[in-house]
């Protein structure tokens, strides 16, 4: 994942380690700073040149603690399902992102 920050806006690209992920997905989000720490969130629509439209999207909300260089997040994935299977359209979990450069 690559994140760029500018005046409260986040933008960048994301590649999932899950499944057959190829290519990147564009991400957009927002952040706010409290002291040196940062509250942030971003979303992705899974649609790229390698696989086209996956009919799904994810959003992450998290905290970056400045002294660690780590972003702790919770995420929600929504995948299209027929109405009678709506209950299985959503998945949630957590991710940790560590700065590597």
From TrEMBL:
One of its GO terms (molecular function) is biotin binding. InterPro entries: Avidin-like_sf, Avidin/str. Pfam families: Avidin. It is found in: Secreted. GO terms for cellular component: extracellular region. Its main location: secreted. Keywords: Secreted, Signal. This is Uncharacterized protein. It comes from Pinctada imbricata. The lineage of its organism: Eukaryota, Metazoa, Spiralia, Lophotrochozoa, Mollusca.
């Amino acid at each position: 994942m690559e994140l760029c920050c500018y005046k409260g806006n986040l933008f960048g690209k994301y590649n999932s380690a899950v499944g057959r992920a190829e290519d990147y997905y564009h991400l957009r989000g927002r952040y706010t700073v409290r002291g040196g720490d940062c509250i942030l969130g971003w979303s992705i629509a899974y649609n790229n040149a390698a696989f086209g439209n996956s009919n799904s999207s994810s959003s992450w909300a998290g905290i970056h603690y400045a002294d660690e260089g780590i972003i702790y997040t919770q995420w929600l994935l929504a995948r299209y399902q027929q109405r009678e299977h709506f209950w299985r359209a959503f998945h949630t979990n957590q991710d940790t992102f560590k700065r590597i450069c």
